[in-house]
Amino acid sequence: MPLPLDYVGAESQLSRTPLPVPVAAFFREAECSFSVKKPGRPLSYTLPPRPRHKGTLTVSRVFTGRQLQPWSQPRPRSVSFHGHLYDPTRREPFFSQCFELLGRLGRGSFGEVYKVRSKEDRRLYAVKRSVEPFRGASDRQRKLAEVRKHERVGRHPNCVSFVRAWEERGQLYIQTELCPASLLQHCEGRGPLPESWVRACLWDLLQALRHLHARGLLHMDVKPANVFLTEHHVCKLGDFGLVLELDRGDLSDAQEGDPRYMAPELLRGEYSQAADVFSLGMTILEIACNLELPNGGEGWQQLRQGYLPPEFTAGLSSELRALLAAMLEPDPRLRPSVETLLNSSIMRKTKKWRKLALLVQDGLLRAASLCQVS
């Protein structure tokens, strides 16, 4: 039986047993100690890694006489969108006709993310475009799966909202709401965040995970780079490219996210909601302590054996330390659920003033909009 989260000594009572299986060679790096985060790393939107594949050309390029697939034709095909400005008689692509490009937010192995303004409603959005054209029908289906997953997430105030998706000239486009910055960007150069802000962030993200888990979804890549902030510092979980749908049964195509945040049981192929709780715990540990999370080696293993470096956590309240220790419990069966965490005393207290702060912000917004109208 796990100890109550409100028990101050919980962090010292949790399991300290070593990992039951050898750590994969991928993680055997020389990490001798924990260190403060290094400033100056790239801070753009991040994208999940593309799975390994054989570098073969698409069929249409090898056998040029064959008819092209419908999705490789120039005209855009709706995956999930409705547009009123697009004119199919013009040569410009749907992206150029319907959006004003304002800049590139980031680039990864999978695609690029752009900041755009819609010519239809004049609002700002983010549009992710795959870097390479589809390599075949299976590659197309794999990429379209991200659209299906994001649509399954649905609407929630703590999840980045999906708008629409389309494919054009063999590339996939996904349009989402735009947030001014990621949590990683916000934390860069600031050092440890105030504990009140950390608690608010934790409460927001637990709301997001409760929403996902209730729909049978695992995020699988919770980290500061995938948490986005609104203008009023509401945290939103985004980047659903690695989401696992537990109700689909087949988890053979599951991909682990960033190794710095991944739960130890994922190395054994065990997928459950507890893995998201662990990754969120690592995220909170990083932003609360300004800790440079190790990619592997001894430090990586210590964090997955229940060890929290006291030189970094000494400034945290005993309540937050106990909560982090519970979230980073090595045994996923003993790790608290999202619902249990939300019912802890520290989160119940956070909920009261967090909701009050959001109400005040909403009131100020309404007042400002009324002043502009008048």
Helices and strands in order, then pairings?
Layout: H1 10-13, E1 35-36, H2 59-62, E2 77-80, H3 94-98, E3 99-107, E4 111-118, E5 124-130, H4 137-153, E6 162-168, E7 171-177, E8 181-182, H5 183-187, H6 195-214, E9 217-218, E10 227-229, E11 235-237, E12 244-245, H7 273-289, E13 291-292, H8 297-303, H9 310-313, H10 318-327, H11 338-342, H12 345-373
Antiparallel strand pairs: 1-13, 2-6, 3-4, 4-5, 5-7, 6-7, 8-10, 9-12, 10-11
Radius of gyration: 22 Å
Proportion in helices: 25-40%
Structural class: alpha+beta
Which blocks of ≥5 consecutive residues have pLDDT under 50? 7-32, 48-66
CATH-defined fold name of the largest domain: Transferase(Phosphotransferase), domain 1
Strand order of the largest sheet: 2-6-7-5-4-3
Strand fraction: 15-25%
* Biggest sheet details: 6 strands, antiparallel
Number of separate domains = 2
So, the CATH homologous superfamily of the largest domain? Transferase(Phosphotransferase) domain 1
Total helical elements: 12
What is the CATH architecture assignment of the largest domain? Answer: Orthogonal Bundle
Silhouette: globular
The counted number of beta strands is: 13
Topology pattern, helix = H, strand = E:
HEHEHEEEHEEEHHEEEEHEHHHHH
CATH class descriptor of the largest domain = Mainly Alpha
Beginning-to-end CA distance, first to last residue: 60 Å
Mean pLDDT over the full residue set: 81
